[in-house]
Amino acid sequence: MRAAADPPDEGGRGGCMEKVKYSYDDFHYVKDTLLAGAINYLLKPVSKIELVHAISRALEIIGQQEADRQQIIKAASLIQDRELSLLVEKQHVPYMPVMMMGDEEGMAGCSVMLVKIHELQSYMEDYHYDMNLLSCHIKCRIKEITGLENLLIFNHIYRSNEFIIVTELDQNQQKKAALRILEHFREEGKSPVTIGVSEHTYTMESIHGAYVQSVSVLMTRPFNRDSMVIFCREEETSIREKVQNRISQETEMQIRALLKSGNSRALKELILEGIGLARCTDQGWGYLEVKQTVKRISNLLLDDILQKGMREQIQEMESLAELADQIVERLDDRLLADILTELIDSAITQLRQEPGGTIRDIVRAAAAYIDENILKN
User: Rounded to two decimals, what is the model's pTM?
Assistant: First the structure.
């Protein structure tokens, strides 16, 4: 007989699920076993059916306990993500996480490592499209990779592909940890990863500034599929100085003129080839340059539809514009060209479907009828 006396773990579960076959006169062995979590008591002689039923029942209970444990872990993880995300967004939180500051030489407090997985959706199928489960596993994996179990790490609830690590590591330790994380994701090959590392800050209250600094550093990366680590102290030049304005006033006027004429072919050629978005990787564009240029083009298309009073069609265009912004995150210029083509086609189609009813529409319709039916004859 093996007694089921292992202590429960942190989740309150018994250390083991026991099935005990008892053959002693002293009942305290049975009592101790039952108190330790045994689920059944079988008297000898035990039939095969009874034994199989009892074992099946034990496996069902173990499975249910594991499912319950997973739900508790996911719920706890989501609560932490929510509260700490509000902290970096500088919103009110009901509690302030406690963080012990080290006294080692060269330590100035805590800093933020922002791990951005640009194609997080490539992992979703492996986790049955359960975002909470995926988030938990990635956070656990990062701890395993770095070998630092005490890392404070959370998944931003508003930007699900961002995993934020608050750490007291010094510069050398940060670099080693970041490179380990980078190498792991690079070997998996599912998604490019960017790790932006802030300078040290003094308190958890000012962690918002460290997060903003990490995001700013990340924006300086080139628009390509390479994974990389960027430290803020390596990026002394301001972001404004690195970003070129890819759409001049003249180009903007050309876009508006082509929208007015409904020439989709020329508009695609101007945006994809003239401005260069179809070849932005080969031309060495920065991530922020692409993001701002796509945003500006989307706004021009949306503004043109609004000016023509087509408010019912604006929702579809806004959805496509939002999708285009998400595609930029994936650092893939081919996908970007595809969504921009769809955005332009949709804008031109909407304009061609402009509802009639005004005097101008009637005049246009009459002129078109004359061209087709009278002048030709």
Answer: 0.71
